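pipeline/complex-builder :: batch 7 item 3
reading input block
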Amino acid sequence: MSALAQARPLAGFRLHPRPRQTELLLLAIVAATLLVGGMSLGATQQLRAVTRSGGELAAIDFLPPDTQGLLVYLVALFAVHIAFVLAGRRTDQVLLPAVAMLGGLGLLLMQRLPQDLVTQSFAGTEYGLGQLQLGWLLIALTVIAVLAIGVRSDAWLRTYKYTWAAVGIALLLLVFVFGSDVNGARLSLSIGPLSGQPSELLKVILVVFLAGYLSENRALLAEENTRIGPLKLPPLPYLAPMVAMWAIALGIVVVQRDLGAALLFFAVFLALLYVATGRPSYVIGGLILFVAGAFVLYNLFGHVQARVDIWLDPWADPQDAGFQVVQALYAFGRGGILGVGLGAGLPTIGGRLPVPAVHTDYPLAAIGEELGLIGLLAVLGLYLVVVSRGLRIAAAAHDDFRSLLAAGLALVVGVQAFIIAGGNLKLIPLTGITLPFISYGGSSLLANALVVGLLLVLSDHGAEPPAAPRDRRRRFRRSRLGKARA
Amino acid sequence: MSGHPVTIQDRKPRRRRSRDIKANVFRTGIAVACAFTILAVGAGWWQVVEAQRLGVAPDNPAVIAIARRALRGPIEDRNGQWLARSDRDANGEATREYRDDAVSHVVGYSSRRYGTAGLERAYNAELLGLQGVDPLGDLTRKFNAGPDQRLGLRLALDLRLQRAAVRGLGKDKGAVVMLDPATGEILAMASTPVYDASAIADPDTATATFERLQADDDRPLLPRSTLGRYVPGSVFKIVTGIAGLNTGAIDPGTTFEEQPPAEKKGLVVEGFRVRDGHHEVTGDTALDMNAATEVSCNIWYALAGLETGGGRLVDEAAKLGFGASIPFDLPTAISRVTSGDGRAPGGFTDDAELASASFGQGETFVTPLQMALVASTVANDGVLMKPHLVTAFTGEGPGARTINPEAWRRVMSEGDARALQAAMQQAVEGKLGRQFTPGAAVDGVPTAGKSGTAELGGKGEPHSWFIGFAPVENPQVAIAVLVERGGRGGERAAPLAGTLMERYFELYGKP
C-alpha cells in the first residue's frame, strides 16, 4: 500500500457490527433527562403565558415547547449510535453521550429564549433561534459520525502540519481583511448568506499543527543546550515557533480585538508544550510572557482596559458598561442552589432580556438561574468528563503525535469552557467566546464537532499508528517488528 | 523534513518517552480539575454566599418586577406621622405617596422608571418584604411558597423639626442635622432645595419631574447633609481641640507666647501667613483654650494643630468618623482632613497646610452629618453614638425589630469633653462669643456651640456654619447647620441653629 492510499481518509470501510452498551445506556439517560427537561420547560411556559394574560390554568399538558425539534435531536443521537454500532469501531463510548447532553441542554435553552433573538431565512422560510440551533446540531452530529466512522488514518493531519499552519494563518488574514465586527471585535467572516467565526476552526488547526510540530521536536525541546545567563534553553531555532505563537496571540488581541480566542490559543499552547516536554519552566516562562503582554496591552489598548475595569468593579457603572456582568451575577444569585426551573428565570427589563448575549456568551448564567448551582455543577462536570476522556485517549495513544493531538483537542474544550465560565462568574475578565456545545452558533458547534470526531478517531485502538510517510526505513522496521510480535 | 530530530529520538528507549507523556497528560488533567474546582467555588460564591445580597439588590430585575406589584411598607416619623405610604391604582399596580417635600432627601423615592433613592433604596428589600430569600431556606421554600411579609420603617425623625429646618433654610441651599447626642437618633436631617418625591413616583409625571430636577444647577436631588462636602471653616477647630486634648498636645490652660504678637502681623508658617482679626478686643493677652474658642482665634488653633502634628490630627479625626464612610442608614460621603497627597505626617503637604487645616481652611472637606457628630461627641461627654434614622422595623414579618442605641466608640475622656463643652458654651454665651454667634443661645437653656465662616477664595459669600448643643448639662439635642454662601457663621447659621433648638425645646419641653 502506498503512503497516499494510507492517507486517504475513507479507505477500507467494511461493516463489522459491534455492540456499544455503555454508550446506549448513557444515551438513554441523556434522552430521558432531556425529555423531562423539555416537559418541565413546556409546562412552565404555559403557566407563565396563562398567568400573564390574567387567566386560570385548567390543565397543564406536559409538552415541550418544540416537541418535534427535541425528538428530531434525540432520534439523530440514536441514529449516530446505530451507525457507530454498525461500523464496529472500538471508539470511546462516553464522549458522544456527554456531548449530546451538553448539546441538548443548549437546544432546550435556545428553544426557551425569545425565538427572534436570531433569525435566518432559507428558501423563503424564516427560522428562529431554536430551529437554527437544531439544524447546526444535526450537522455537527453528522460531522462527528462521518469522522468517527470514516477516518482510519491520521496521516493527513500529521503529514501536512505546515500546510495546516498556512491554512490557519490564511484564515486569520482573511478575517483581518474581509471580516466584520461583532461587539467591537473583528470576529466574523461572511461567505454568501453564511457567516462564521474562523477563530473556532482555527483552534482545531492550531492543535493539529502543534501536535505535529511538538511530536517531531519534543526531544530537542526538552534538551537544554543553550545557556543565556542562568537560563538553560533548548536550541534557539526550535523556540522560534513558540515565540511566533505568542506573537500571533498578541496579534489577535491587537488586530482582531478577540481577547477570548487569544487567551484560549495561548493557554492551550502552553499546556501542550508542557505535555510534550514535561518542563514546567516553559509554562512559567509562558506565564511571565503572558503577564508582561497583558500589562502592556492593558496600558495601550482601551478595549482591554475596559474589560479589566468592568471585571474589577462592574457596579461602578451597572446601567451601562457593567450592565451585562451585573445582570448575569443577579441571574446566578436568583438561581440559588436548586434554580428557579427551566423557563421560569430571566425576568425581562422593559421587555428586553436582562443579559442580551445570553445565547452566545452567557448561556451559563441562564443555566445557573434556571437549573441552580446543582445544574451548573452538573454542566461543569460534563466538561470535565469530556476533558478526562480526551486525556485518557491521549495517555493510551500509540505515539506522540496522537497523544499530543488528543490532549490538545481535549484541552481546547476544557480551557474554552473555563475561560467563558470564569468570565461569566467574574473570576476572570469576560472575553467573548462561546461555551462549547451549548452556545448558539454554527462555527462553534462545527468546530467542537470536529474536536469530538477527531477524539473518537484517536480513541480507536484497532487502528495501528501509521508510519511516518517519507521515512521508508523506519516504516520497514516497524512492520517487521509488528510481524515478529504477531 | 529533516531526519535529525528523528535520530535523537531513536537513541532514547521508546517506552520511557511514552511514559513521560502519560505522566504529563495526567498532571495536566489534575490542573484542569483544579481549575474547574475554582469555577465550582465561584459558582457557589454567587449562588449561595452572595445570593441573598444579589437577590435583594434594587436594580435586580426580579426585585423590580416584585416592586411593580407589591405594596411597600409604610415609613413614619417618631410620632407615628406617616411619611410614605402605598396604595393600588385602578390597574392593581402599586403606587407610592409621600407626605412632605421636607423629608424627600431622607425618605427618597421609589419609581418604576428611575429606581429608588434614600431610605426607599437602602431598605428596599425590607420594605418589599424580600428579606426572606436566603439560599438555604430556599431549599424548603421551593415547596412551601408563601409571600414574605413587608416591613415598615419607624424613624427617629420628627416631622415638625424637619419642617422647621427646611423652612429655616428657606430659599438658601444648605443642610441641617439634629440628633440626640445620648442615643445617636437623627431628629432632623434637612437638605435644601427639596424636591417632590411623589411626582417622581407617579408614572405620569415622573419623566418631566426627574429630567427637570437633573438639569437643575442647584442640584436638588443631592442629599447635602450626607453627600455634600464643604470647607468647614472654624467649626473644624473643635476637631483640632479634640485631637490636641486627646494627645496631650494642649490642655485647657495652654497659652502660646507667640500668639499675641502674631495677632498684629500674622503668624508665619513656612512662608504662609496666618492672619486674624480680633486683636482690638483681646490685645496682648495670651489666650487659653476657652478664650481662643470664644473669639475663634485662628492663630491659637493653628499653633495647637502644629503642636499636635499632622499624623495625630488625622488619626484623632478618624475616631470621629473622618477618612471613611460613616456607617449609617444612608450612603455618606467621606469627610477628610487633608487630601493625603503630601509627604508630611498624615498626608499634609507641609506645616502651612496643617496650620490652615487646624482652623478648617486647608484641604479639609466635611459633610454636615460629620460635623453634627463632632458636636454630638463633645455633648455626650466624649462617647460617639452610632447615628441612625431607623428606630424600628414595623410589621408582622420575621424581620420586625427595634434598633437600639449603640455606642460607636469613646473618642475622648469625659474630662476633656467637659473642657470643650465649657469652651463652646463660652463661644455662645461669653461677652465676646455672643458677637460671633448671635442668636444661637436658647432662652433659658445653657447653650454651647461654635460658628464657622468657610472662606472659599475668590469672590462671593463664604459658607455659613454652626455646630452646637443644648443644654450644656445632659444635652438633649446636638445640631449642625450649613448654609451655602450664607455669609459669616454668625449671620446666618448661628441664628438658625438657635431657632431650631428653641423649636426643639418648645416641642419637648425645657429642662
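note: The longest helix of chain B spans residues 14-49.
queue -> next item
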